[in-house]
Amino acid sequence: MDLTNSDVLIVVDMQNDFCEGGALPTADGHAVVPVINEVGNRFQNVALTQDWHPKGHVSFASAHPGKAPLETIPMPYGDQILWPDHVVQNTWGAEFHPDLNLPHAQLIIRKGYLKDVDSYSAFCMVDGVTKTGLASYLSERGISRVFVAGCAIDYCVGGLATDAVKSGFETFIIDDATASIDPAPGASADCAWKDVAAAGVTRINSADLA
Ligand code: VGL
Ligand code: ZN
Q1: Residues 67-110 pLDDT 10s
Q2: 120 within some domain
Q3: For the chain, what is the domain count?
Q4: Structural domain includes residue 70
Q5: DSSP string covering 76-96
Q6: What is the pLDDT of residue 210?
Q7: What is the Cα 63 distance to its own chain's centre?
């Protein structure tokens, strides 16, 4: 597959808290960093997303007395899974992984910064209506194909890729450059791969990119 300047690589949430030693680690975050660095060199256009929560964020179990991580609570926008405190603004956990090396990245887009609504996709909050502006940015830059990597297929990679299709972009997830929170058969990563396929996302490997 040949890449052109109407392609973008979006590297999702490649932050300390989603890697080994972090608050909400994926199984393989540290392992995908070198693959992302290598693939990133082949793209003229690279954007990074950064999950960026205020203290006491609604998605934190600690904000709901008596609740534990992975329990769910009903919210006006639907069921919210509760997480350990993660990527708190201006903390080590929110910083990009120190080995991520993409100096030519053109955009860093933050999400999850509103205290009362979560945001998995960097296009839109989970309420389905509050947009970040990413779709307009990409359109204005003349982008037609979106390639996605990072953390984690289960939530933020899957959510972003699904919204990219909805926004009219041809969308690919680079499997070997993507980490999983729960890779067990039948668990969240497996389900997400099925959901994104149903949404029209194509699953590729880094070797498929020239
Ligand atoms: C993520 C859960 C909560 C992710 C972010 O980056 O996949 N998952 N916040
Ligand atoms: Zn989060």
Answers
A1: 999 999 999 999 999 999 999 999 999 999 999 999 999 999 99
A2: yes
A3: 1
A4: no
A5: TTEEEE-B-S-SBTTSGGGSB
A6: 76
A7: 23
How long a stretch of residues is the chain? 210
What is the residue-averaged pLDDT of the chain?
98
Residue 182, domain CATH = 3.40.50.850
The predicted-structure confidence for 184-204, as pLDDT tens digits, reads as follows: 999 999 999 999 999 999 999
**CB distance 14 to ligand 1 below 6 Å:** no
Whether the Cβ atoms of residue 73 and residue 36 lie closer than 8 Å to each other: no
Q: Which ligand 1 atom minimizes the distance to the CA of 86?
A: 9
Q: Quick one: DSSP state of residue 155? A: I
- The pTM of the full predicted model, rounded to 2 decimals, is 0.98
Q: Hey, which of 155, 180, 193 would you mutate to test ligand 1's pocket, going by the most ligand atoms within 8 Å of its Cβ?
A: 155
Assess if residue 65 is contained within a domain: no
Q: Which residues are catalytic?
A: 13, 111, 156
Per the structure, the complete domain to which residue 123 belongs is given by 7-54+85-208
